[in-house]
Amino acid sequence: MTAVAGPIVFVALAAPQIGRLLTGAAGVALAPAALAGAVLLLAADLAAQLLLAPVALPVGVVTTVIGGCYLIGLLVRRAR
Known about the structure:
By secondary structure, the chain is mainly α. It is 76% helix and 0% strand.
């Protein structure tokens, strides 16, 4: 499955955590996680299409950058 989806799987890792942070709940709620995932993927797709306007980037490149930055942020926060 990862070979088909590629780096878009970063959204699946980040969305539940973002949904949990937005709701302040102890566990992961399905609706906020799904909404966060949809917004992340929509934003990544728009950025991929508009970042270098005449040439469209693959959405996986943008999700890799977003997911990588988010994971680094989580690691830094956990280290403190």
